[in-house]
Amino acid sequence: MVQIKHSLISEEAVKGFAHAYDLGDITDCRFLARGLNDTYVIYTEADQYIYRIYRHGWRDDDAILFELDAILYAAKEGIKSSVPVKRKDGEFLTPIEAPEGRRYGVMFTYSKGDRPEITEENSGRIGRALANLHHATDKFKTEHPRGYELNTAHLVKVPASIIMKQLGDKMSEEQETQLYEVVSKVKDKAENPALSYGFCHGDFHNFNFHLHDGELEAFDYDCCGVGFRAYDLAVFWWNLKNNYPQQEKTCWRSFLHGYESIRPLKEEDKVALPYFVAARRIWFLGILAANEDVWGRAWMNNQNLNHFFGQLASDVKGFGEK
Hints:
The chain is built from ten helices and ten strands. With 322 residues, the protein is an alpha+beta fold. Strands 1, 2, 3, 4, 5 and 6 form a six-stranded antiparallel sheet that branches. It has a two-stranded antiparallel sheet with strand order 7-10. A two-stranded antiparallel sheet has the order 8-9. A hairpin with a 2-residue loop joins strand 8 and strand 9. Helix 5 packs across helix 8 (267-290). The radius of gyration is 20 Å and the shape is globular. The protein starts with 10 loop residues before the first helix and ends in a 5-residue tail after the last helix. The mean pLDDT is 96.
């Protein structure tokens, strides 16, 4: 038998899964995006929905239900998010027996609008949105285990091991030393018990929002978990550094101002922010390296590695900045 790593479920099959929900007449289904999960748009006569099929081995049923419980808890506290939709039988998860093994499908409401541009105004909006999310989920609890926390093991220790396993043969001794020195510095900074710890979105930047009539709505909580709140803020900073370097300083100030207008940051969290930018960079490379069936291996070359370590060196220069 031929082994399958990651199947792509047909649009017709997903359209069939959608009949398990009370959505009205379904008119179409379109494949939207492939990544760690596969995403489809479901069209009805009255509305649109998002159908996500989680990849086999990426999240188990408890981990997914943790995510859904968090979204629904936050929604009850007034946080605008794309929320899961129950099936007609009252369940959220649809087990799918794919060639590679069991996967799960979940229907979500569709977030109207478009991805917000990175401006000072929108950065402030996103900062306020994250502060509101943190405030709303301070007391969040669920019976479903997530399987990990957004701690140093998840963010730097495990990713560094994956990077060495997949890319170590392409790295110089200096790069290996640099990687482990940064991991050590992040772990040392994160040992401070005064750092804020609680529910985090885990991927809070403008790619995971739509802006409609002046209001933001968040989606894609797939990287959420309990962890360092400073990391949740640092993800936005990392996104600015990577994708909007010319606007980094002004938009980061606006984001922080927006966040602190709702929820003042402790000094310990402020000091830790640049360390968690580096943590995010290491985590992200680890994700890429661990999932070659999604992103392939063509990017695994010296040019990209040198670029990564150049960015990491720049992150280290920022330690002490806030």
